[in-house]
Amino acid sequence: MTQASRDWWRDAIIYQVYIRSFADGNGDGEGDIAGLRDRLPYLRDLGVEALWINPWYPSPLNDGGYDVADFRDIDPRFGDLAQAKSLLDEAHGLGLKILLDIVPNHSSSDHAWFKEALAAGPGSPERARYIFRDGVGPDGSEPPNNWRSVFGGPAWERVTEPDGTPGQWYFHIFDVSQPDFDWENPEVRAEFLDILRFWFDLGVDGFRIDVAHGMVKNMAGPDLPYEDSGLLDRPSIADHPFFDRDGVHDIYRGWREVADSYDPPKLYVAEAWVEPAERLARYLRDDELHSAFNFEYLKSAWSAADLRRSIDSSITVLASVGAPATWVLENHDVERVVTRYGRETTGAGTGAARVATGPADLELGLHRARAAALLMLALPGGAYVYQGQELGLPEVLDLPVESLQDPVWERSGHTERGRDGCRVPLPWTVDGPSSGFGSGGSWLPQPAGWGALSVQASSADDGSMLTLYRTALRLRRSIPSVEPLSWVDAGADVVAFQRGTGFACVVNLGAAPVALPAHREVLLASGPLDADGHLPTDTAAWLAL
């Protein structure tokens, strides 16, 4: 194996599979491994190199599978370990790598360890695997401090002790059903090293690490100000007591030793909501993790200045530790880009800031999303495509309240609808039950006309978003991957750069058409050029120089 093939991840396109909403193979209304296996040829033909699969472990699904009850098994609604092994073998046979989600910060309250902790009582080794503390005030009836869950409400929950009396409190950054592990406990650290080996031995190529900036806590930390807190917000104070603490880096050095013990080495991708970029780079030193989601880029507004600043910052800072940048426009936690770019405020938000207000012009949003796709795919490094992004799916904003399942809805007191609108099952066909998602409906209702955006409809349309992605991913292979980015001055409202001497990308974010720089050929454009051959507003072009 060449070094280039061992470093495949440095410029790979990785497709995010939210398995519950991807494809339903058994007709129960929920996506599963069988449905994913059936669609592997679609993903190969799309042109991606790897798949990242959101949690498929046994779970009560109080938080979309991020409440894990068993880290070494498959939830029966999705399949079983034998099917998982078949999926891995078939994907590898098609040249596709498979990454899983790992959730090291917490477990489900249904996990055997947590049940043992509740039964064993205060001071027990079983309880020491989690973060239990005595309360304050009369009879310990108040939580240990004012820390809040990022899903809303207190980050502490009081338990009833085995003798039936009110007892200690346990800590949960997320939902009450997601108790946090105590990563000061050597048993917890050893357990996750074994979990990594279990899946690597099965054939998994790597992991995306959920809340990679969590895990280590200073439980003696102070009360926190919460004026601007929100879902997955980055730390807003210095020395945050439970986000981005230095101790996480020792954990990842141990994880890297496990990954490097395989041939070829396995891959880690960090979900780390930290800033500034220099803090993120610390996770990507050569003895820690390999790459990280670029949330600075994802949250950027649709403006030339904002995009240039984010691109420059990402490339420059990550290069200082030899890590590639990765580019992200969508995932399962943020509003879909077609809807977001159709709003007056185009930057992505989290938590309360995620609740966009005002109308969304979906035609405008789609036009911009097409240009954004070409910009993202032309940048040096890797990129992620969230399922349905390649179809131009909008956010579903009018899901009936009785169908909402995101814990944010309940914990916010029904003031924030949560993330279900970007998790609606995919349309595969124009007609039929659930637009081809499966024979038995879909766990979240699909909007009327969803089939018009389906893979079937898009494949027959030369001007569709799917056709654009397929063409761009094919042409992308000819862009010199080792060539850095050099900016081209094309005006304040234009993002333009070269990769080497033969390729350029130009994106017009201004109000008027702009002339393209000298070129031999327009390889691909997100929309038609005007009659003078100029690039219209909100349009991108790839040029052969």
TrEMBL record:
It comes from the Bacteria. GO terms for molecular function: alpha-amylase activity. InterPro entries: GH, GH13_cat_dom, O16G_dom_2. Keywords: Glycoprotein, Hydrolase. Belongs to the glycosyl hydrolase 13 family. Residues 16-423 form the Glycosyl hydrolase family 13 catalytic domain. SMART domains: Aamy. It comes from Jiangella asiatica. It holds the Pfam family Alpha-amylase. This is Glycoside hydrolase family 13 protein. The keyword Glycoprotein applies. The keyword Glycoprotein applies. GO terms for biological process: oligosaccharide catabolic process.
